[in-house]
Write a structure and sequence with these properties.
The protein is an all-alpha fold. The protein is globular. The protein has three domains: 62 residues; 193 residues, no CATH class; 156 residues, no CATH class. Keywords: Ligase, Membrane, Transmembrane, Transmembrane helix. InterPro entries: O-antigen_ligase-rel_domated, WaaL-like.
Amino acid sequence: MTPSRFRSLLLGLFYVALASVPLSVAWFSPRWHFGLLLASEPLMALTVGILIVGLLAGWVAWPRTARRLDKLIGLHVGALFLSTVFSGDVLVSAKYFATILLYTGFGYGVQRVLRLERTEWFRALGALALGTSLLAAYALLRHASTGISYTFSYFVARPFLEHGHTNLTVVLEPLILLLNMVLLYHPRAQNQRGRFLVTILLTGVLMVVAFSYSRASYISLLAQALLLLAFSGREAGVRLLLPWAVASCLVLSAWQVINIAHPHPPTATKTNLLHELGSVSDFSSANESNAERMSRWVFSLDLFQQEPVVGVGPGTFPDRYLEFVRHDPAHPNYTPTLRRMNAHNLYLDWLAEAGALGLLSGLLLLGYLLVRQLKWVFRWEQTPAQVGFTAYLLFFLLHSFTQDFWQEPRVIVLFWLAVGLQRHYARAAMPVAPAAMGKPEPALDTHA
């Protein structure tokens, strides 16, 4: 097989797998989990496996040098591996470790080796956006036909790992950022028809967010809006005010209409949107979601004290927490649901499961990405790409204080794609050295 033919086939499989990532929930068959076990994870594993075969066969070239980011990823993976070796449940940790390798290899490894070109980046993001849009449309149709359902929101966001959880809205936040960027900067969105179409799309996505009862996402989207206003300035920010005002009115109206049409949803307690927004800061036992978060944060610190260096083992937090609440029913934030979730904090999860080594290596990795982004922002003239990537990275880091994204493929795959795309844009924006102007190829490879 020729290298060009192999690369084309691998890219096609990569696009299909990306489109399947948001859609991999168990809607179709609860018994067989169709879509969960038979779609995205096998496609990702197949893509990574074929990439490795291509590297060994010489159909694609190995990266010439190891970047600093590659070394930091290896350092963090090494810390997780060490924690897996000393885990209290090696089988659970080994499965967790394997999934981390799969998601990182698919989201970062494929685009790192293939060095995607501009059009290939757009196709990859388009495939991911297509799957995400179909998922949002499906959620809206269900809400319109059965009522606003808290349980349904969790059902659609059902994770790949049994012990993980990420709300659907976290998957939609990058799509909302993209629509905001279009409203701010795209020429076609500056005329009346373009702004109307983008506003309708924004309204539909915000409805899914509003109907999901995700308080953390409400705060995250507010932080995203403030970041955009801070970076884009008052004049550009005005372009967001009217579309967002119209979208907010339509969301509130739709909420009331659906509650009137379905006064008793089959799987949810009737509530009020404004009440949900006001409950963000309520961490009492009356607010199960927030109380459980606080409980898990405190328990994470207890686990860290048990194994401060290498942690209790990647992926073992849920079983430890279940054992804790079952043997301590007097725990003030105990709830009878016993949902198998994570620590609801990426940094505390690293601290508890991988110890000080896992937290330090993870912070070095994320810190390097943040410093690299800030250097790009302050070194060159501000561009829409700089604004978008900065807002994305900052609200990812902020939202990680209330959620653990490292085990959620629908979020972490997009994260690694954003990391690669940011480097692509940053290197393309760099001025070419005068000595390289006369060479056939520029000294800076914009595909890297």
